[in-house]
What we know:
It is a single chain. By secondary structure, the chain is of the alpha+beta class. It is 28% helix and 33% strand. It has helices at 39-44, 53-66, 72-84; strands spanning 2-13, 26-36, 91-98, 108-115. Helix 2 packs antiparallel against helix 3 (72-84). The longest helix has 14 residues, at 53-66. The chain is elongated, with a radius of gyration of 15 Å. It starts with a strand and ends with a strand.
Amino acid sequence: MDKTFIKDLHVRGIIGIRDWERKTPQDMLINVTVFSDTSRAGETDDINDCVDYSALAKKIQSHAETAARLTVEALANDLATICLDIPLVQKAIVRVEKPSAVRFAKSVGVEIERKRGE
């Protein structure tokens, strides 16, 4: 299976359980890897046979900035669902990080893996 990825997509949105987190948008980093068969795209050189990573990045950014989820787990699951809504995508790995969430840590977050049909 081939991979298409989006690395370190920077978004700002409401995420967290504390009162201040429900009011103040926070920085998040999102990494996504989607798995599909790219052989047809390699033969046709047609965007319609590809996972359009630009369109996917826009959907991910829009959702992450407006979802106002309590947990990064819920947000990551939302984003995996968005990825799997693309017919070519068979599997998605989504990583959501909050870079400023824990003092003395560069970043914290979750990484999930979802497959079509699960």
